[in-house]
Amino acid sequence: MPKAYVFTRYGGPETEALTDVERPAPGLGRLLVAVRAAGVNPVDWKLRGGFRRPGESADRVFPAVFGSEAAGVVEEVGAGVTGFVVGDAVFGNTVDGGYAEYALLRADQATHKPAGLSFTDAATLPVAAATAYDGVRQLELPEGATLLVTGAGGGVGTAAVQIARAFGVKVVGVASGSKKEFVESLGAVHVPGGPGLAERVRAVAPEGIDAVYDLVGGETLAEAATLLADRTRLITAGAPPEAVAELGGSRVARARTSAVLDAVAGLVLRGALNPHVTRTYPLDRAEQALRTVEDGHARGKIVIEVNE
Length: 308
Ligand SMILES: NC(=O)c1ccc[n+]([C@@H]2O[C@H](COP(=O)([O-])OP(=O)(O)OC[C@H]3O[C@@H](n4cnc5c(N)ncnc54)[C@H](OP(=O)(O)O)[C@@H]3O)[C@@H](O)[C@H]2O)c1
Hints:
Order of helices and strands: EEEHEEEEHHEHEHEHEHEHEHEHE
Radius of gyration: 19 Å
Largest sheet: 6 strands, mixed
Bound molecules: NADP nicotinamide-adenine-dinucleotide phosphate
Number of strands: 15
Number of helices: 10
């Protein structure tokens, strides 16, 4: 039977196991994919803890496979799917998890993987890069505007900085001191996080900040908000809707379409976006991969490679 990395109930790391699972069958609108790579994201461990995505009401069926995105090769095509055939290299959002030898993709949230894009890089695009893209697009900043990105060295932040730079926007990136050179290499002016953040940002951007894309929440978000006269220019992917609404801002609106995946893949192909996969793990070391992200200080992206 195929292997998958699962959680067996809601809770902490003690609920996790590498186990045999049934090979999923692709229902209406789904693709069954032999997974080559799966991106690792904070939402993976949050779901294990009982978090529900917006609009999600049903309880998980256990064991639940970790992961939200994957790249691989189509093994079976579900009813009603057009534009994909067996053998296609694809990537996209998963239905029931991607840390597995086989996963189901939603065909309307998947796309063909260009030959010049590796499975490993492709597996990072549906969550982090697409979230970065949606947020930067939502802000509609003109060329030459200045964007503050908090969590600039993490998965979404790394992509948000590069995408904003590709659109001609100046970026101030908030990250810990250990990520200074990394964040600068992405094209941002680095500012360390922590108390006094707003003052440090004003020092490097005396002309002011036009928008904030927050990926951290909490005190960082609250202090970043003080830099904006117009709080509609404040968006977050890292804080709950009510926390950002209280400050006058909003959550990033996610598009989750094949077209956005094509757009971010295009940015990678033309050299404008490097997902910066800093570490890969095989499926039987998924636990370490997830801990690296759960520790909260990941740099770029962590990917699980399957059957490499
Ligand atoms: N709504 C959506 O569709 C969506 C999609 C993707 C992600 N998200 C959310 O967006 C957030 C960021 O995701 P990600 O994938 O970029 O996570 P990540 O790769 O773990 O990066 C998060 C970054 O935040 C920084 N950080 C962590 N704790 C901090 C603190 N207390 N103060 C200041 N900085 C801190 C870390 O940088 P330092 O080491 O420099 O501190 C880290 O690099 C998560 O909450 C995630 O769940 C939402």
